[in-house]
Amino acid sequence: MIASAPPLARFSAAQPGATSMKLVATGLLVVMAALFFTARAFEPAYPVLGWLKAFTEAAMVGGLADWFAVTALFRHPLGLPIPHTAIIPKNKDRIGDALANFIRENFLIPPVVARRMHRLDLAGAAGRFLKAPAGQESRIRKGASRLIADLAESLGDERLGGIVKGAVSRRLREMAVAPLIGRALASAINEDRHLPLLEATIRWLARTLDANESMIREMVRQRVSWVLRVASLDEKLADAILEGLRKLAVEMHEDPAHPVRIKIEHALADVANDLQLDPSTQAKVEEWKMQLIENDSVALWIDAMWQQAREAVIRGARNPDAAMAGQLGEILVNAGTSLESDPRLKMAINRFARRAVVGMASSYGGSIVKLVSDTVRGWDAATVTDRLEAAVGRDLQYIRINGTLVGGLVGTALHALDVVGL
């Protein structure tokens, strides 16, 4: 893998040719000096050279002044500790603080962040990414599958399993199950969803009677007096009991308004109300729940379920073409479609993202700008100076060249005024 260049190294490559432009600016100043002394020497013999002398003289002044100004930004001219020179090295920390304040006041204050975030459709962008075109869907699905598998394996079975099982156990211990069961039972009764279970129970009772007929007859024979057994009335009594129970089961199954069914439904309604409102009933249910959670068999069952789920996730995620990976890809595409096509969902997600980013800017904006200022403070002054000069040096040398030429033109104009006697 190719390492990225450090920030300061990228400065040096920002404007190639800075050194050559520096030579051009310095060379132009040297040329102006040579022409000045040449014109000065031959001016008595050739008065027209006064124009060249005026141009080059002023050009040297302008070039030297701009050289001084450009150099004073980064170092002491000629190494002399002249006041108000080497501005950038001396004020490096203040420049970092000013840059940090600029970022904070123009980018990280909540009103600015909110205004910029208001124009962004993050939900739509996420939807377009998830709803990938042909060829990208496989890449996204593979990436998501690989991430899930790596996460499951990196945490390890003992660590992740302990987290999951501990969370499940803790959640079960904290959950008040009695009101939950009571509401579920009340909802089922109100919507008649308990009727199939009630009818199945009645059919089960009928089958149980048929399957245990001999046991019932034996129970009746043992409990009646010997007088009835001698008179063979125990058989008739058993027949009557069995026939009555069978008739009751048939009538309860066929008649929804049967009194026994009504009483059972009333009893279920009372149980639902007690589960939601009666403290003693809730306490009993909580006691049963804790006994169930602390049972070793339940712990082994939870552990086995976790092992199966973990192995299935890793096995499916490691194979992007497996059913789990394909379903994951479909889920991603469906999520992308919903994000793109559902205005309410898109609005809710964008609002949440906007508030989250604004909140982060409000809470951590100061830390971010402090990171900028601390980073600048930590840079070496000489290195920063060299890099910055290399980055903007080309334009700075143009300032020197322009100063030389503009100075020369001003000198020529002043010489013209002197010639015409103004």
Structure overview:
The protein is mainly α and 422 residues long. Among the domains are: 7-90 and 380-419, no CATH class; 167-314, no CATH class. Helix content is 84%, strand content 0%. It contains 20 helices and no strands. It has helices at 7-12, 18-42, 49-74, 87-90, 92-107, 110-118, 122-130, 136-155, 157-174, 177-190, 195-211, 213-223, 226-230, 233-254, 259-277, 279-293, 296-318, 323-341, 343-378, 381-419. α8 (136-155) packs across α18 (323-341). The longest helix has 39 residues, at 381-419. It is rod-shaped and about 165 Å long. It starts with 6 loop residues before the first helix and ends with a helix. Residues 1-15 have low confidence and may be disordered.
Low-pLDDT runs of 5+ residues are 1-15
**What level of helicity do the residues show?**
over 70%
Helix count equals: 20
- Could you give the distance between the termini? 72 Å
**SSE pattern:** HHHHHHHHHHHHHHHHHHHH
The shape is: rod-shaped
The number of E-state strands comes to: 0
